[in-house]
């Protein structure tokens, strides 16, 4: 009986080591700098993200539409795959300076409609912003839903 337990444990250990190296190889391919050469059949310009091995960061670039290896739709997707230490921490933050309401239910400040990424629902949602420009840097705050989706997924 103990030999069976030993063999089962050894098999599980070997399988997990093999799976880990396979996963690392897949990430290595996924996180390689994309080939963005221009060809006549690949002349689109689309904002995408790639992992820059030199800087160790996910960055946006204008993608030609060909060679999908190493190309991500959002910074969040790139970071989740290639650089978990970089994170897209602003996607997890509460939105900055939501407008306050008085007792009558009316806003007390001038509101601007903006979007933030709701980490619970995993969707970009509309909210009313009443802060100043300094609060917006590296924060969970976007002028358009499309920008929010590009950054946070």
TrEMBL record:
Could you cite one Gene Ontology molecular function of this protein?
Answer: serine-type endopeptidase inhibitor activity
Every copy of the BPTI/Kunitz inhibitor domain together lies at 31-82, 99-152
Q: What is this protein called?
A: BPTI/Kunitz inhibitor domain-containing protein
**Cross-referenced Gene3D superfamilies, in alphabetical order?**
Pancreatic trypsin inhibitor Kunitz domain
Check the record and name the Pfam families matching this protein.
Kunitz_BPTI (PF00014)
* Lineage, top ranks: Eukaryota, Metazoa, Ecdysozoa, Arthropoda, Chelicerata
Q: Which UniProt keywords apply?
A: Disulfide bond, Protease inhibitor, Serine protease inhibitor, Signal
Task: State the PROSITE patterns in the record.
Answer: BPTI_KUNITZ_2
- What SMART domains does the database record attribute to this sequence? KU
Q: Where is the signal peptide?
A: 1-19
Membrane-spanning parts: none
Q: Name one GO cellular component term.
A: extracellular space
Q: Which domain of life is it from?
A: Eukaryota
InterPro entries (alphabetical): Kunitz_BPTI, Kunitz_BPTI_sf, TFPI/VKTCI-like
